[in-house]
Amino acid sequence: MPTERALSPLPGTLKKLGVITAIRDTQLVEQSLLRTLAPILGVLETSLYRINGQHQITHILHHSRTGTRDSAGAERIAERIEAIRNETNLPEHIALLIDNVRLLGQACNRPGPEGLVFCYPLRSGEQQCGYLVFERRRQLTAMEDAVVTGVLQVYSNYYALLDSSQRDRLTGLHNRYAMEVSLDRLWEELSNHLPPRDGYWLAVLDIDHFKNINDQYGHVIGDEILLLVSRVLGKTLRRTDMLFRYGGEEFIVIVEARDLELATQFFERLRKAVESYRYPQVGQVTLSGGFSAVATTVLPKSILERADRAMYEAKKAGRNRVFHYQALLDQGVLEELETGSITLF
User: Model-level pTM?
Assistant: First the structure.
């Protein structure tokens, strides 16, 4: 059965809110929220389910606390945060509860394996962007519900501000800073993950002849092309793939694929999606790209440089194509550079 404790005093809650709003990383803010609410609710486990605009779960954070006592009888709390991607098989009672909250737009609860399971919606403006889920033996008091609702409102407002600062204003995609944070986090996750996960692949994609589009049609149309290309890419990507505007007409895509063949097929699908779309006034727009396997033994900046060099070879070869960095090495088209010798950040 879930162990419950007394509601934390309000001053302690306000202090923890101050900690949350001092953080500048969206995922760390999510972790801090769970660490804040667990003792407030008197529970040992809390979970956050983040969703995209289609109400698909993009990632889950599970927070757990374990209480132990040392030889002197003093209680010690050990905390653990687990991040999960690609989770589609939720327990039935969790899936039903989340669906209820999605439809009603308000907190709900239902019986669970060891008590009552509660679900609160997380909002960004008027849109639901996630769910807080926890289980305990008894109903929340009115005071507990008010405190949880207040904490979630502060969190949601701050998260929205922080998230907007990490997005490109034109396309709404995550920007270069967000990409750097995401790469550092991905490298850390992959380095600590046993057994090894499926491979990740990073691609640099660049709109062909974009300067000519700006010169011929003007910057307003150029901005429209950037926006439309970002939308086409976003619709073609899967919910767990990562898409960033790197700057100018360049985009960075990070996908998970178990082998080179699948990665190649996926990046070709992106290229063809952009090529087949018909853009107002301009007509056809194409992409050139290069991609490289992610290796945790190689710095992120070097993986970016590899993909970038492959992209320029695609430009030189006639554009509207995507090249694999290692294949270019094997063919003798490129020579390996010293790892970490080029600084991109």
Answer: 0.74
